[in-house]
Specification:
Length: 846
């Protein structure tokens, strides 16, 4: 019996408990004395001591749960096994472990709660942890799955659906037989090609299947994380080989008592202090200084030991800041437009920098009656970032490091090939290790074509919002107080450059955070909250800055009712539309709301020119496209008599704009005003009587009659990298005739191919004069476009949130003798009916 319930050496507690359940610990009733006779089951004294503490007869399962809860009173102290699961079976076991962790902290007196881990509801937090721990083979597919019902499914139900949706992977891809389409008995959800990359499985008959294509066909490149000298220790600390640092000493003694901290942090912080003392990072002391501990919880759930040095910072002499501006680093990285990246994050960089003995007493803090101080550079002090950044920069310069960007202890390298990036990364890692820094293996990423740096996802020089951030924001619940509203605005505000009219959208949310206002969450706030989340989900990637005489930089500015907006675009020869570099907006401040319309337009142009100078510099020519001509006012000798802005404000406007305008030659001025339509003012050549209506709902294919099935077509589109170029392919398939048509080309992505496939289907229906067309697509975007967006797009001049509709500008769709009539069905089935009047002309891109 002891073998069935004993914990293995090194086994996680939360892994051990499900094994006890599987060995029928719930059916074994033991009195307290009998339970103690089992001996040490958990290999942990605190848990074993609590087993059998109650005299009455209880199941061993209940005794194990209560003993773990008594030993670890806080749920965050019980950690599930780290790392990613590798097979579906292990993934389901990990999900059961999360369920057992929930059960440990159940109310023991509540008999309504499930006693079986498989009957525990899979809550959204559990599901997010499960998805984050999934390997890339499954993660993208799992991330888009959501519960359809209000009540969360049980762990057993989730596991059953997982087994039906995923199959054991086959690592060999030889002798594949290609099929244009695969059908199955169930359609739980439709997954596009982006979620089925590299997905291989064997069906119950033993046949092997492959979905989609690999997004990247690259040579096998050894990752930088495989280099020798990198550490596996999660708490590793280096020691920089420099003299002990003399840092500014406070001009006045500061002594502040410890305030109450988060109860969940007590045990982790105590362990951290013991660990840091053993590593020599801190030591015991007696000092007149004292600052309170301020524990900070990381996104991973771990705790960081920081000290609240606000009082000390106020009496510390200033230093010249050497840390670069994060936004400038982002602009510089965008300008590289690299194909490959690698990032390096130094482990505990602050704790690697030794302090001179006479500088240490001012950093003292107290924990459980014992005073400590830092022997290394502490976190939370005002000059720590500057000192750390400077020492790392010096070490890299001394070692003649290759081209890179550095923000304190985060470093990124780039290049046009994986080999180039690998060599740069190896050189920088060697320099840092020789200098005395430590680097964790898990904190070295790349070479890769897509990477995360400074919290931003980078690909081909494009600045994108990471998918985990999008999912986090999309899952946020409405705030219930001012503090939660401010926290939400802080999260979404970091990505404001991706969102046209950001300030105007979130204005109702800022309104409830003002001190003079009570917190009232009304219809305006609800609408703004949902709209900004929707904008984040559909945010565009900001493209890299390009240089050259043929590249046009176009700045669109406008003065709206509530504030100015501006956006910067670049357009190169041969491109049908510009590429966005950034979107900005703000509300009117103070007296700006009383400006004349012309002054408001000049204000918008001024703010836009300021922003553009930070992105493209002042050497490039800027095409200024305001709603009203404003450049002429800047070169007038006097201010108009009807102005509301002060003379000083006018002087500021004139100085900035005319200074840039005069840069360059007379034939190529620095700023050139262009009278052009705004992107949302474009007309795509359709006459007013040619109204675009919507598609009609169609049933699933297996519900069509035998007479209807010949008019059904399935479409799909995909893309991949071949060499250095994207290749796309669009296909349409007839299940009754079992024939397919395809088109392919270069330079576009899968969304373009999806629309191109629709065009192929329309061509077939027109060519053969079908009375009806039933379209089936796995593209959510195409389905929604044909369902409900086309009419709205037409009414907004083929714009969506101020941006040109890519489906219109990327491909010319000829509707021929078919008109989109009503609504799209579930399972992405679209029914198109023929026109009863003359056909509409083609939609053409601008």
């Amino acid at each position: 019996m002891w073998k069935d319930f004993s914990r293995l050496p090194g086994e996680h507690i939360i892994t051990w408990l499900p094994c006890c359940w599987d060995n029928r610990a719930s059916s074994l009733e033991l009195e307290g004395r009998e339970a103690k006779q089992l001996g040490s089951l958990s290999r942990e004294g605190g848990i074993d001591k609590a087993i059998g503490k109650k005299a009455q007869a209880l199941s061993l399962w209940r005794q194990l749960l209560s003993s773990v809860r008594e030993r670890y009173p806080f749920s965050k102290d019980v950690v599930c096994r780290p790392g990613k699961w590798t097979t579906m079976e292990r993934g389901i076991q990990y999900l059961r472990e999360l369920a057992v962790r929930e059960m440990v902290y159940y109310d023991p007196d509540n008999t309504q709660l499930p006693a079986d881990p498989d009957e525990v509801q899979c809550t959204q937090p559990m599901w997010r942890k499960f998805v984050r721990s999934a390997p890339s083979l499954y993660a993208n597919s799992l991330a888009v799955i959501d519960w359809k019902s209000e009540e969360a499914p049980t762990v057993d139900e989730v596991a059953g659906n997982m087994k039906r949706a995923f199959f054991p992977p086959s690592l060999t891809g030889n002798d594949w037989e290609k099929h244009p389409i695969v059908t199955g008995p169930e359609d739980l959800c439709i997954l596009g090609i982006d979620y089925l990359r590299k997905g291989y499985f064997k069906d119950p008959k033993g046949y092997r299947w492959a979905f989609g294509i690999a997004a990247l066909e690259a040579e096998k490149i050894e990752p930088l994380s495989s280099l020798p000298g990198l550490s596996e220790d999660p708490s590793v600390v280096g020691l920089l080989r420099v003299e002990e640092q003399q840092v500014p000493i406070a001009t006045t003694t500061v002594h502040r008592r410890q305030y109450r901290t988060n109860r969940d942090s007590l045990v982790p912080i105590h362990e951290l202090i013991r660990q840091l003392e053993g590593q020599g990072v801190i030591s015991r002391t007696h000092s007149p200084f004292n600052s309170p501990i301020w524990p900070v919880q990381k996104s991973s759930g771990e705790w960081r030991l920081t000290v609240d040095y606000h009082g000390l910072n106020e009496v510390t002499l200033p230093m010249s800041a050497a840390v670069p501006d994060m936004l400038e680093l982002q602009y510089e990285l965008k300008s590289k437009a690299a194909k490959w990246y690698a990032t390096i994050d130094i482990a505990n960089a602050f704790f690697s920098i030794p302090l001179a003995a006479e500088c240490r007493p001012q950093f003292a803090f107290t924990w459980r009656g014992v005073q400590y101080t830092w022997n290394r550079l502490p976190q939370g002090w005002k000059h720590s970032h500057t000192i750390c950044h400077g020492l790392i920069q010096t070490a890299l310069e001394k070692g003649e490091a290759p081209e890179h960007l550095q923000y304190i202890d985060d470093i990124i390298v780039w290049g046009n090939s994986a080999e180039e990036v690998s060599e740069k990364g190896k050189k920088i890692i060697q320099i840092l290790l020789q200098a005395g820094f430590a680097i964790k293996r898990s904190k070295v990423k790349g070479p890769a074509q897509e990477i995360q740096f400074l919290g931003i996802r980078w690909h081909d020089g494009r600045r994108q919002i990471p998918m985990d951030i999008i999912n986090k924001i999309a899952a946020m619940s409405p705030p219930t107080n001012k503090k939660e509203t401010q926290a939400f605005l802080g999260v979404v505000g970091f990505w404001r450059m991706h969102i046209p009219n950001y300030s105007l959208i979130v204005s109702p949310l800022y309104h409830v955070t003002w001190k003079k206002n009570d917190f009232k969450w009304g219809p305006e706030q609800r609408q703004a909250f949902e709209q900004i989340k929707e904008e984040i989900v559909h945010a565009v990637a900001l493209r890299p800055v390009r240089a050259g005489p043929d590249v046009k930089n176009v700045l669109y500015t406008a003065a709206g009712e509530n504030g100015p907006t501006w956006s910067l675009w670049q357009k190169a020869p041969g491109e049908t539309r510009g590429r966005p570099l950034g979107f900005w907006s703000r509300g009117y401040r103070g007296s700006e709301a009383r400006y004349t319309p012309m002054e408001k337009e000049i204000l918008a142009a001024y703010e836009g020119v300021r922003a553009a100078s930070e992105v493209i510099g002042t050497e490039a020519q800027l095409l200024l496209a305001p709603r009203l001509p404003v450049l002429g006012w800047m070169f007038k000798e006097r201010v108009p008599s009807t102005h509301h802005a002060t003379d000083a404000t006018w002087s500021k406007w004139v100085a900035l704009i005319t200074q840039w305008a005069r840069i360059g030659s007379p034939n190529r001025p620095g700023i050139l005003e262009v009278i052009t339509d705004w992107p949302e003012g474009k007309d795509f050549g359709m006459s007013p009587e040619e109204e675009v209506t919507r598609a009609e709902e169609a049933p699933p294919y297996n519900k069509l009659t035998e007479d209807e099935k010949p008019y059904a077509l399935f479409t799909d589109g995909s893309c991949r990298i071949v060499g250095k170029h994207w290749r796309w392919k669009a296909a349409v398939w007839s299940p009754t005739r079992r024939v397919a048509e395809a088109a392919e080309g270069e330079g576009e992505l899968s969304q373009f191919a999806e629309v191109k496939a629709i065009q192929l289907a329309l061509d077939i229906a027109e060519r053969e004069k079908w009375p009806t067309l039933y379209l089936y697509t796995d593209s959510w975007m195409v389905a929604n476009a044909l369902w409900g967006w086309l009419q709205q797009w037409k009414q907004s001049n083929w714009q969506c949130r101020g941006k040109p509709i890519w489906a219109v500008t990327k491909v010319t769709i000829t509707f021929h003798a078919f008109e989109l009539k009503d609504v799209i069905a579930s399972r992405s089935a679209i029914k198109l009916l023929p026109l009863t009047r003359k056909p509409a002309r083609n939609m053409t891109p601008f």
